[in-house]
From TrEMBL:
SUPFAM superfamilies assigned: N-terminal nucleophile aminohydrolases (Ntn hydrolases)
GO MF assignments: hydrolase activity
Listed Pfam families: CBAH
Transmembrane segments: none
The protein's name in its UniProt record: Linear amide C-N hydrolase
Similarity field: Belongs to the peptidase C59 family.
All residue ranges annotated as the Choloylglycine hydrolase/NAAA C-terminal domain in the record: 2-309
Key words, A-Z: Hydrolase
CDD domains linked: Ntn_PVA (cd00542)
The keyword Electron transport belongs to this UniProt entry's keyword annotation: no
Provenance organism: Lactiplantibacillus garii
Amino acid sequence: MCTSLTYTNKNGGHFLARTMDFNIDFGARVMLMPRNRTVQGDAGDFTTKYGFVGAGRQLAHEMFTDGVNEYGVGVATLYFPDHAVYQQKADAGKLALAPADVVAWILGNANSVADLQAQLKNVQIVSRTAEFIGVIPPLHFIISDPTGKTAVLEPTGGDLHLTDDPVGVMTNSPDLHWHLQNISTYGMLTNVEQPLQQYGNYQPETQGPGTGAIGLPGDYTSISRFVRTNFLKHYTDVPETTAETLNLLQFILNSVTIPKGVKKISSGQSDYTEYRSYMDLDGLTYSMELYENPGELQQVALTADLLNSVTQPVEYPLNHQPRVHVLNPEQVAK
């Protein structure tokens, strides 16, 4: 169960950020994928044209859950339980993709949201078990590019197509159309203090700033996370620089980050935020923030040198140790 959002700062920089929430530790690493790589996918081989970087694992084959490619196309996969419908097999002449291979295929082959839409007529997602979790994962996908165009791919049976996402936010089930209709319920929420009504001869005293957001849902359901993320995205002050934008995105995701133990599933396990990632779609950087090491962004830049020189996937080691900046080390050492 995850939350994702796109963001555009004052300088026109476009970003895609997400939480990865699940009950199994994926052991995700930041992985670089070279150009022209043939992937032995769970539903058949496919070849990438473009290089990309993201959260990946080198298992029986390369698998990614989110990332950004050399054209600034960013993709994130999110759980879509009880709504995802896949084909049993692909029609003749169409590429068959397993759900867990969709992110890698998009990042490796689409140079824009519009380009992806044109290619989807030749692709079908088929029911295949994901090796790492041992189930057929019900997934949908959010895709954005440097123009700010954002869409959601929701396989619900039949031909694949993209749905425009006018708010640039996605969580889990239900589908995007349902979420967009639901936020009308909260359309009166605001970031300014609301005046209090007088009751008879009694005028209640103000409770102070924040009353405009009374009623904003605070639980961890997909529905509430969608509403909360939209509210924060809409009302936060828009930053200018990349560093300021990444800092703001961390604050927004704080509101939907799930600590271990507070969201139990039927098996007794706990969904929690394993990592958060931040994709700069203009600067072509991918940053990961781990549950064990919050606050530190561990980043790989998709440079021209990397794209032109790397021929095999590269996994970058991550620091899982929390960092504390001691301000008086000379005193602590005594």
